[in-house]
Every structure is written in C-alpha cells, then in structure tokens.
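Handout, section B. The chain below has 267 residues.
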Amino acid sequence: MQDIKLFVFDLDGTALGEHVPYHRFPERFVRFLDELTDMGIGWATNTTWGLQEQLSLILNSGVKSEPAFLCGGTGRLMGRIKQGRLVPDEAYNSAVACKDREFRDEHWHTIREICQNLLEHDAVEEIAYAEHCILSLKVRQGCADSVESLLSPLLKDGIYYKFDPHNPTGISLLPYYMNKGDILAVMRERLGISSKQIVVAGDGANDLQMFRPELAGYMICPSNACTLLKERALSCGGVLADKPCAAGVMDAMSALLQRTDNESQKL
C-alpha cells in the first residue's frame, strides 16, 4: 500500500446523508474509521459544522479512534479530541479571528460600495453582511447577469469566492481565507506529511478548495457529489463511487486502497 497517512472528509452529504440520523455516523462508517486507524491512517473532518457539534456526533457514534483534527466553520475552526474532550486549537482559531479584523479594515469600503450599487440597481431582494464577513444575496429574477457584473471586483480580485457556484439566485460569498483548502495545508504541516499521503472525500462545490493535487494526492466522491467536484476528482485520477454518502465513500476508499496496493506491487 502507498504511504497514506491521513483521510480527510466532509460531513453533510459525504459521511452523512438524509437516510442517516444526524446525531451519529452509520455503524459501518464507525468501523471503517477505526479500521483505518488500525492500518496507520489517521482521519480528520473538514466541514461547515462547529467543533462542539462534531464532538457530540463522534461521541454519539461510539468511534473508538480519535480524529487527528476536527476542522469546522469552512476552515475557520480547528481542534482535537483528547480522552473524549474537545480541545480547541487556540493559536489557529485566534489567527483566523485576526484575519477577520484585517479583512474588514481592508475591504469594508469596497464591500459597502458594491452593496449600495446592488441596491441602487434593484438587483437583489435581500442582502446581508453577516458574522465572519460573509456576504449573502437573494437575487431578483432576471438580474443574475447584473449581479454577477457588480460583484466582479470582489470575485476577480480574489477577495471573496462563491460558496456554491451552482446557485445563481441565493449567493453566499465567503472571504478568501475561509476555505477548506488552507486548513488542509495546516493539517499537513502539523503532521509533517506530504500532500501525496492525504486522501480527501467530499460532495459539494465548497469542497473544491481541498480537491487540489498540491494539497491531496487522492480524491474520492460518493455518487451524490456535484458535477464540479466529480470532474475535478476524475481529472486528478480520483475515484467516483456508485453509491451515495458514507456507503459510497467507503467503497471508493476500498477501491483506492486496492489500487495503491497494486501500484506498490508493480514497483
């Protein structure tokens, strides 16, 4: 087997699905995580959930192994579980809070001006500048092109990115530093491993940031993953499953491990 050291996965639509009670992992997925740990492969979450919610999920699931990291808030939060207790990574979380302040100081004038233009053009029904510098818009029917044009300074300059590029009417813009890719790079550095030793699993467009070859050597998707993510995974030699959510992730991981075993035997 190739020297895989870390398996990083999303929760909603990846490890969890509509058919699964959201207070615990499927039993088979619990065994899967513990088996990976026994093989010397650590695991970590990378999701929108808060850390405390993830702790409750893991404790309710009865997972024996402890995650290498809990990552939440779309790259904003990092922590660990030690002896059944949540231990937030204060250094990382404080650094993100500092980025919030720097972002507001640097970009608030531009954001405010663009929001005023959107309202003056009557292009949106609702607009909100929420906590953590998130900008949310409800686009009026027939105004998608106008909104895209007005938002272009924020998007083209890399100040913001779209949480879900597939949704042209309900737009959520996240600041550039709030993403699943940068936090994956931190995990890699903390563990002292290479990108080629990391497997990532996800289903949504917001997982694209960690589906990058410079961050993860292996990529897997359940069958319910969005087209953008499947295309990215395939272009990087990833594995697509025939089943949705956790069942698909486990099947894809098994296929990947078999493939890497075969590759190792040929060397």
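Note. The first strand starts at residue 6 and ends at 9. Compare this with the example in section A.
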